[in-house]
Every structure is written in structure tokens, then in C-alpha cells.
Amino acid sequence: MKQIAFIALLWGGILSSLNVQAAQTTAYVSLKGKLVIPAVCTLQMSNNNIHFGDVLSTRIDGVNYQRKAVGYTLACDRTPTGTLTMTLTGTPAGFTGGSGALGTSLNNLGIAFYSGSTRLTLNSAMAFSYTNQPALYAVPIKATAATFSSGGYFSAAANLVINYN
To answer: Which sequence ranges form a coiled-coil region, renumbered to this chain (predicted)?
Structure first.
């Protein structure tokens, strides 16, 4: 019995001599930020249907003839931060001279979009600011040197997409 106690005391002495002390240091960290609530915006079209009426094929110039306003209102509960982008999306016209224009139901006839006097490219974003929203216009455009042997009704559809922060 004494022998067992001696071994236990000896073993405890070895363990106490292997005691390791850990070092510790600290540093202060300051964290700050600003929580920003994004603006809530609504896009409304003043008229979802733009009617060109009777379009004379010989007068289509893709710039001024039958130029119609694309009326919209972008209203936000607060000014959005950063740059806003506007994109008109749709099926592109597939004819020569129709690059960037919207295709219509009639071959060789499309719709070009303008911001003021600058022609826009369909499916490409245009940057703008909330305080300076661009005026948009739609204008019939035809294929280079196109002549139409028969008339008819035409239609097209596009989406106006606004991205903001």
C-alpha cells in the first residue's frame, strides 16, 4: 500500500513540474458604420400604348418623323444613392441600319429610342441621375434603302427597366 502511494506522489510531482503558463495580450477594436435603407421607387408609364397612327413609309427617317414621347414617372421615397441605369429591353431589329433598334412585326421596320437627341441602344444600360431623369422618345426606323410594296399594321413590345441602389 505504501508503494502505491509513493508512485502516486512521484507521478504528481512530474505533472506539476510540466505545468505550462499561457501568455495573453489584448487589443481594442472599434467598429463603426452607417446602416442605409435603400430607396423604394416606383416606375409608372403615363401611357403604356404608343400609337404612331398612319406612318408614311417614304417619310421614315429614324430621327424625327413620327417622334413620340415615351412618358414615364420614376418616383422614390428618398433620393437613391449612386448611379441609376435605364435599359430598354426587347427583340432587336434584324435588318441593316437597324442596329440597336427594336424589331416590329413588319420586316424592315423597327423602332429607335432616343434620350433627347442621343440614340439609345436596345438592351444596353444608360446611366442617369435621379434629379435629372432623361426624356425618352420612340421613332419608326426602316432598313437602309427599304421600300415597302404593301402596308399593314405593325406592333412591338419593349420593357423599360430602372436599376438603382
So the answer is: none
Cell of 120: 439609345
109 forms beta bridges with 142
Binned at pLDDT 50, 70 and 90, residue 19 comes out as: low
Calculate the dihedral angle through the C-alpha atoms of 100, 105, 106, 110, rounding to the nearest 10 degrees.
-20
Query: In whole angstroms, how far apart are CA 73 and each of 45, 112, 115, 124?
Result: 6, 20, 15, 20
Average pLDDT of span 45-55:
92
The C-alpha cell of 52 is what?
404612331
Burial label for 19, CB within 10 Å (0-12, 13-18, 19+), is: exposed
Question: Does the pTM of the predicted model rise above 0.85?
Answer: no
Q: Return the beta strands (E) in the chain as ranges.
A: 41-45, 68-69, 72-76, 84-89, 102-103, 109-115, 118-119, 126-128, 136-142, 159-163
CA neighbor of 140 nearest in space, from 72, 44, 54: 54
In the predicted model, is pLDDT for residue 116 greater than 80?
A: yes
Q: Which DSSP state fits 54?
A: S
CA distance 134 to 126: 10
